[in-house]
Amino acid sequence: MGILVAVLSGFLVALAAPWLTRWFGDRVGWVIALLPLSITIYLLTFIPDLADGGSVRYSIEWIPALNINLSFHVDGLGLVFALLISGIGTLIMLYGGGYLQGHHQLGRFYLYILMFMASMLGVVLADNIITFFVFFELTSLTSYLLIGFDHNASKSRYSARQALLVTGIGGQFLLVGLILLAIAGGGWEFSVLVDQADVIQDHALYVPIMFLILGGAFTKSAQVPFHFWLPGAMAAPTPVSAYLHSATMVKAGVYLMARINPTIGGTDLWQFVLVTFGAATMLLGAYLAVQRTDLKQLLAYTTVSSLGTLTLLIGIGTDVALKAAMVFLVVHSLYKGALFMVAGTIDHETGTRDIRVLGGLRKLMPITSIGAAVAALSMAGIPPLFGFIGKELVYEAVLDLDTFAIIIAVVAVVSNILMVVVAGITGIQPFIGEEKETPKHAHEAPASLYIGPLVLGTLSLVVGAIPALIDTSIMEPAVSAVAGQPVEVTLYIWHGVNAMLIMSIITVAVGVVVFMGRQQLRSVTNQTNLLAALGPEAIYAHLLAGLDWLSRTQTKIIQNGYLRFYFLTIIVVLVVSAIYPLMAYGNIQLAGDLSDVRIYEWVVVAIVLMSAIMAVRAQSRLAAVAALGIVGYGVATIYILYGAPDLAMTQILVETLTVILFVLVLYRLPQFATLSERGSRIRDAIIAGTGGLLMTLLVLVVSNERFYDSISQFHAEESYPSAFGRNVVNVILVDFRAIDTFGEIIVLAVAGIGVYALLRLRLWEDRSEEK
Amino acid sequence: MKSLILQTATRSLVAVMLLFSIFLLLRGHDEPGGGFIGGLVGAAAFALYAIAFDVQSARRMLGIRPQMMIAIGLAMAGGAGIISLLASEPYFAHLWYHTDIPGFGEIHLGTFLLFDIGVFLVVIGVTLLVILTLSEE
Predict the structure, then answer these.
(1) How many structural domains is chain A composed of?
(2) Which of A106, A208, A218, B35 is the most buried (most CB within 10 A)?
(3) Cα gap A531→A676, rounded to integer Å
(4) What residues of chain A have any CB closer than 8 angstroms to a CB in chain B?
(5) Is ipTM > 0.95 here?
(6) What is the domain range of residue A647?
């Protein structure tokens, strides 16, 4: 029960966020941070249980008929992620209040980000795969809202849509993959599927399952070639970048790979794909990072690189590699969250994020600079920070590879050298050297802005120096969950002199040298920017432009704005699609028995027919409308004669209101300027005649044939006993088929609002012309 | 083109039509009528008023923006289903309250009525939204 509350409380508080913001004003961040803080504390209580190898499940029925249950499972892997989400979430809620202080949409920010936090907790704690998928997609949606938070800027809107499309399309692959996985494994819970690993891996569908699921994971976690949406997502406010696009959401794909690893991982194909894409992403991300001059872009590309590292490690799949993956995951979240917050603070205080104009801030912002320096040192992998342990483990895992160990090791070292450079550029360079002229004169940031980096920096330092604090209690259950079997985890800061230490020393030494020559590096690497025209982002832009063109073209053809053309299209399509099945399967009996038809019924029919002919031949609109009205009332009369009073009343009322509408519109319109040409009249007559004939035949067929027993019997019999109503029509509308009716009134409402919008749009144009 | 005869007749007609629309709404479960038909009659009453007088007076008499009526109607109709959910019944499996009023007969109340009132409001709202906006143009 507690888990359910922990996950869903975020949604409830999110709904209250706008009011909370109104009540607490500038201090709202401190209030809202209490929620993630209490979730963090609650999650910490699971540690003793999990350290003993246990796990906690909680499930309630949601849609049992479809095997969809709201089931949650807290194991080591889920707990590490959940702690990062709620822990960093606490700091971000604080930070957001300071960063967006006085922003007129602060309430909306908290609404979105709390919904995001809750969705993310759902992702990492869900056990049912469909529940997992729902939360997974919710993170994409909330991310879309957050990236587009500054919705007046077209850059934000473009980036938000790009992120949504890339992760959303990946999500569709993922859904199919998960369903196939459930079919292959015969279960809908991760905790059940993990025992079916052998069955699934031998299943004929294994390869498609793997690629479909990886499609979801790679797009979400920005692996090459889908990496381009992540730097674009930097259009979001910095608290969002720090939270979603470094510490949490982009790791949802990594989480998925880790979660599914014991079930479908470990095969040669899996290893090959993950190692290849992971290594490529790792290198490309780091390479693209050093070209940038915007702090957030630098951090975004290194995040891409780190996500590649995590994919690579999960792909390698040995105990050491999985250990490295989990440690590096925590390392990265701690330092990257801090550096993003620092970048935002610098932007907030100086008015720029361009590293070329930043410098000497340590005197102006001493506390921020300490947080930044610690985070940068962890990123660079300097002992005794946690980043050092992480990097050592990464090297150990890479050297462990059977094939291509050398290539991957070189990739890892080069990427890490570039990481050292970026760590220097983002965490050290703005604070050292001469003070420079910035758009705003910098001051030390308020507490809400520096608490985050300080806390994360302290954590990096403490768990780096004393890894025993978390190795057996938190990391061991996590690594065991990813491996699918118990793995012992003990972390040391000092391994003795070995290959990894030498690689580390080389990394840092070369990194420092390259950092000194960073300007030359930037200008050299900028030469390759021309290649971007062939890159995936360019392909995405072309695809999008193509889609726009396609919609424009087909709209121009199909919806050309002439009502008569719409009718023509509708009737022609109907005739063409119905005529074959009607001829092939219909049992048409034209010779009906007409002896029952009373004389007054003939009269009504005759009136309807004559009015219809009059409507067609009328020379003025008013006459045509009046004639059509008679047709409608005539039909209503037939309904009454055949015992359908509800239908008749509706018909009469609709006819009346239609005439009112026509009258309102009509006297504004000019006289018929020209009546249509003889040729088009003949064409219309043929099409209308065919349509009418077809409907007549259909009615005859339908009244002759019954493919199924009529349901009217059931409705008539059950109407009073189960729905306590004697008017069957109404009982069907409000009870038996209430969801249909609900859908219909929604359509009605949408149509009404559409009409309103069109009319108001016209009014607005008229007014602007008057001016 | 304001006709005194139409205006005078409208004053009394509107009251009767509105009463009739509510009558239709409430009897709908047992006799011909219901939210949709009732809504159309109600909308016709306001439309008549708008034609006899002017749109502003009709809006004043309505007292609420048609958009708001649509929103409230949709919320009521959807909410009727959610009440069932809270009672652990499937969505839109209506809940019932039966009572016997002496001299009047058996009365069945239920969430269906909430649903039908929602339909009623949406129909009035949409119809008036279109008619009133059109006549203002």
Answers:
(1) 3
(2) B35
(3) 58
(4) 645-646, 649-650, 653-654, 656-657, 660-661, 664-665, 668, 723-727, 729-731, 733-735, 738-739, 741-742, 745-746, 748-749, 751-753, 755-756, 759-760, 762-763
(5) no
(6) 574-707
